[in-house]
Write a structure and sequence with these properties.
Helix content: 10-25%
Strand content: 35-45%
Radius of gyration: 19 Å
Mean pLDDT: 82
Structural class: alpha+beta
Largest sheet: 5 strands, mixed
Length: about 160
């Protein structure tokens, strides 16, 4: 099975593959159109953790994300806003790394920040406005989960 890397294809019009050179035979528009019909959305996001019990407790009890189930070998599943969140212990050393930043949408960033801080969550940044858009302000607050991953609260204030 060939893995296709698509990070820069919309700018260059080329498709790079993991096992060969760029393939400039498709236009950026063709690639974008194919992607729009093939990719239906994000269904699941995985976060690597070191201590599953500790992480499960944090995401379920502190963040309040609905827990779905545990699965072998060491995974816990949650549901947040229609997206499944998988917490899992790395099976191989090369899989051990911090995750991407997840931005948890909220309607009251200050209230959520206050609740989480009172529960012992370590915040890297307090809530602050980061962008003034034409129809709303974008507010963020960065925090760390129990596994050292950076996460964020996000509010689109209108």
């Amino acid at each position: 099975m060939k893995v296709i890397l698509v990070a820069s294809m919309l700018f260059t019009g080329a498709v790079a593959s993991a096992d060969g050179p760029a393939l400039p035979d498709r236009s950026a528009r063709e690639v974008a159109m194919a992607a729009s019909t093939d990719i239906l959305g994000v269904r699941q996001i995985a976060i690597t953790v070191r201590d599953l019990d500790r992480a499960r407790t944090f995401y379920r009890d502190v963040l309040g994300i609905p827990f779905l189930f545990d699965a072998p070998p060491q995974m816990a599943f949650f549901e947040v806003g229609g997206i499944r969140l998988l917490l899992g212990v790395a099976e191989k050393p090369e899989q051990e790394h911090h995750s991407s930043i997840l931005y948890f949408r909220t309607e009251s960033i200050e209230a959520v920040h206050e609740r989480l801080a009172a529960a012992g969550v370590t915040f890297v940044e307090a809530p602050r406005m980061v962008a003034e858009m034409s129809d709303h302000q974008l507010w963020l607050a960065l925090f760390r989960d129990t596994e050292g991953n950076t996460m964020a609260l996000l509010e689109e204030r209108r």
